Amino acid sequence: MTKAQDTKELSKLQEVYDGLALGYENTPFNVGVDKDYGVIRFKTDSVDKIDIPYGPTMERVGAKAPAGGFDTSPDPFTGHGFTKDMNDNIIPEYTMQYLKPNEGAELYRVNSETGIEELIAKYVDGKFVKIK
């Protein structure tokens, strides 16, 4: 998970794929094949459920283990709280336990080639409701 302000330069799927290091083994993302992808924008009052995903090497510099312990995910996971961006951008990343978004959260369909967004649903009464 990232903050919108940290990824505002990423809009086309190739940019998102490279910037968020989505080229891991068995990735569901297919640049050049996927016509669009989804983005959820939300605010939450449950900030206590958001962690920086530190790996075990961060313990040496005094980082506190996240709620579920240190993350040992394989490459491209960096373990230092930033994505392994392929274009030298600095993009902080976060993990979260299940959290409830505030009312009004938005679900967008984004065209993979142009980056043009279409608002398709809003979070109302505990679920995403399609916009007609």
Keywords:
mainly beta; two-stranded antiparallel sheet; 6 strands; 132 residues
Please describe the topology of this protein.
Layout: H1 13-19, E1 36-41, E2 50-51, E3 95-96, E4 106-111, E5 117-124, E6 127-130
Antiparallel strand pairs: 1-4, 2-3, 4-5, 5-6
In short:
5% of the residues lie in helices and 21% in strands.
Order of helices and strands: HEEEEEE
Number of DSSP strand runs: 6
Strand order of the largest sheet: 1-4-5-6
> Biggest sheet: strands, sense, closure?
4 strands, antiparallel
Alpha-carbon distance between the two ends: 28 Å
* Large-scale geometry: globular
Q: With helices defined by DSSP (H or I, 4 residues minimum), what is the helix count?
A: 1
> Which structural category fits the helices and strands?
mainly beta
Q: Which segments are poorly predicted (pLDDT under 50) over 5 or more consecutive residues?
A: none
The number of domains is: 1
Average pLDDT confidence is 92
Tell me what the structure shows.
By secondary structure, the chain is mainly beta. The protein has one domain (4-130). It is built from one helix and six strands, in the order H-E-E-E-E-E-E. A hairpin with a 2-residue loop joins strand 5 and strand 6 (127-130). The radius of gyration is 16 Å and the shape is globular. The mean pLDDT is 92.
